[in-house]
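hey so i finally got around to running the thing on that chain from the lab meeting. sorry it took forever, my laptop kept dying and i had to restart like 3 times. anyway pasting the input first so we r on the same page abt which one it is
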Amino acid sequence: MIQIKSNREIELMRCAGRIAANALATAGRAVAPGITTFELNELIKQSIEKEGAYPSFLGYAGFPGAACISINDEVIHGIPGPRKLESGDLVKIDVGATYRGYIGDCANTFAVGKISEEAQKLIDVTRQSFYEGIKHAHTGNRVSDISHAIQTYVEENGFSVVRKYVGHGVGSKLHEEPEVPNFGKPGCGARLVSGMTIAVEPMVNQGVYTVRELDDGWTVKTRDGKLSAHYENSILITEDGPEILTLASENL
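ok and heres what got predicted. didnt touch it at all, straight out
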């Protein structure tokens, strides 16, 4: 069942979203050759906890990190550890923060040092595909109107969208209804109504859209070993259009 949020719940989600976004921004500023994914994880954990919240991912279905940190051909769900970032890497950081029972969920892809033009295009297209999608996040539209716009923009730019993993509703639970795919025909799925909160998260591959899961039970990689990028925000559907809930404070 899709949960329509009350004004009180929406305000708590704004707080959770800001905390998550600030933690993501903190980690993004620290991205540089030589830093480990564990060190980034600790920065995120500290940023969230100092705001009186806790990392939504930590312990979720047994996940051992405070954030998912994935490098290059790793699509999502990378486990933080001793691996050091190297110049030319793409690092995807996915953060969730739970504040007074409500969750903000966001992700971004960061360049480590100098990267190739193709890698930069992948980052840019992934980010813009999110914004192309939420142009259709208006009351009365369908979830798949968002999905179709993302897929169209990505494929027009020569990349592919992951099918196996999708966006989702978000609120008092990390994953709520409805699912929000990044592909599909328009005019399908749940109708968007004011008070819905969803996480829209394009996962875009340089090559084929198929993926594989590693033996650690979490890390997902591209099937062909090519690069992947990820961009995500939690949004609120309103009568006046979408509101992004996971925006960092202006002073960060």
